[in-house]
Specification:
single chain; alpha/beta; Rossmann fold; seven-stranded mixed beta sheet; two-stranded antiparallel sheet; 7 helices; 9 strands; 27% strand; elongated
């Protein structure tokens, strides 16, 4: 059995992809993600030689539905309806385009939006408390919405353990940068799977994460290098 499963921390991918290759429309970002996964498969086949019979098992993408709640902005003293935001529409379209990709499994968690709010950026808060700036110096851009997700990391970890215990694949590629996935990576390796980590050219990789994989490899680095 020569099968590879690719696991993607969606929020991580979208952030790194925007940093590396700029903003894109939902359909282009979805196509880019799929092509990026196929590039990983090409690299694996190249490593194993021309006679390799390795196949792609599934691409598992983990993310959360976008915020659709009305949130009060403390500076402008206005309510912001996120269901009408460009981010909300972009994300839903992006998910729809992902579902169209072959062998793509979209796995979503729960958005904990009951305490959604706007928080001032730490640097601005520091300047405010030190007296470098006053409240009158703050702008809307000095605040960002804050909420949390539940179940995304857990589902990713559980699914890695599941394919490992069932021996459905003998290799996994993990596109992520979170140490929360270390326990799942350790279990996969103990079950004999080859675990490849792709931090997407992140400069700093936690030692705990890099220690419990069999290799680290990222694909396209910059737009002009693809």
């Amino acid at each position: 059995m020569n099968k590879t499963a690719i696991f993607i921390d969606g929020a991580y991918y979208r952030k790194r992809a925007a940093h590396l290759w700029g903003k894109k429309s939902p359909d282009r970002r979805a196509a880019e993600l799929y092509a990026y996964c196929m590039e990983h498969m090409k690299q694996v086949l190249k490593d194993e030689g021309n006679h390799s019979k390795r196949q792609l098992y599934r691409i598992f993408y983990y993310d959360c539905e976008p915020l659709s709640k009305i949130v009060y902005h403390p500076l402008t003293k206005k309510n912001i309806d996120f269901s009408k935001s460009d981010t909300y529409k972009w994300t839903l379209e992006f998910f729809d385009h992902l579902r169209e990709q072959r062998k793509m499994c979209l796995r979503t968690g729960i958005l904990l939006d009951s305490n959604a709010s706007f928080n001032i950026h730490p640097g601005k808060m520091k300047d405010l408390l030190s007296g470098k700036i006053s409240l009158d110096d703050l702008t809307e851009l000095d605040f960002s919405p804050s909420w949390s997700q539940k179940g995304v990391d857990m589902k990713l970890g559980v699914d890695i353990c599941s394919v490992a215990y069932k021996h459905q694949v003998d290799q996994i590629i993990l596109i992520a940068g979170d140490t929360d996935f270390v326990p799942a990576a350790k279990i996969a390796r103990r079950e004999g799977l080859d675990v490849i980590l792709d931090p997407m050219w992140a400069e700093h990789i936690a030692d705990k994460l890099s220690e419990h994989v069999d290799g680290i490899r990222s694909c396209w680095k910059k737009k002009d290098e693809k």
